[in-house]
Amino acid sequence: MRTGFEVRKVTYLLPRSLVTNLADGAQVPSGTATELRGIAMGGNAGVKAVDYSLDGGKSWQAATLGEDHGKYSFRQWTANVTFPDKGEVGVMVRATNDNGVAQPLQRTWNPRGYMWSSVETRKLQVV
Questions:
Q1: Is residue 5 part of a domain?
Q2: Which domain covers residue 20, as residue numbers?
Q3: In the prediction, which pLDDT does 107 show?
Q4: pTM, whole model, 2 decimals?
């Protein structure tokens, strides 16, 4: 089948992480610890680390990893975060696998979406 664009086989997946306990637009209190929870996968390797950023990716803090269930499994993570200022804040989360490959900041496009694993930003309202 001719597609009009370069076709490549998917031979591996990139690391990916998600915030699972707070929806986009959720309200969180200022000055009080808020728990962030989520899951991560390492793609073709286990999950070595999950980090989060509150400043658009300028700095990253380590999240606490849950039990490692093996190379191809999801791994839970948590972080207790205190938001000092009221207003909107973007929470970015990225996974790094055992091979040292980090979740990309930019999306890697492909026609079926298999490599849709870039760092996403969850927008929260600090009240």
A1: no
A2: 16-105+117-126
A3: 79
A4: 0.87
pLDDT at 3: 62
Question: Which residues is 61 bridged to in the sheet?
Answer: 52
Residue 74 in tokens: 């999801």
Residue 54: which CATH number? 2.60.40.650
DSSP 101: P
The reply to whether 23 falls in a domain is yes
Q: Kindly report the backbone phi and psi dihedral angles of residue 16, in degrees, each rounded to the nearest multiple of 5, phi listed first.
A: -150, 145
- How many whole angstroms separate alpha carbon 36 and alpha carbon 53? 12
Dig out the tokens for 1 from the structure.
């089948």
The torsion region of residue 25 among left (phi > 0), alpha (psi -120 to 50) and beta comes to: left
Mean pLDDT of 71-97: 96
Report how far residue 28's alpha carbon sits from residue 48's, in angstroms, rounded to the nearest whole number. Answer: 28
